[in-house]
User: What shape does this take?
Amino acid sequence: MKRLKEEPWEEGFAQWYEEKKVKIRIFTNRSWDELDLRMRDYYTERAEEYFRIRHHTDLNNLRPTD
Assistant: This one.
């Protein structure tokens, strides 16, 4: 997964990510350069979670619980 670009969007910014030819945008209230490392990691983790669910890459890791 990679972050492609940033665009001004309404009252914030849209961060574009792509994986396996699927693109999504995540909204932030500040530009990427203004975000601290913790917030960059947070938004990147949200994008990774979306792609993991979207591409079902976690299906083999799920195990039933007793």
Summary: Helices lie at 37-54. Residues 2-57 form one domain.
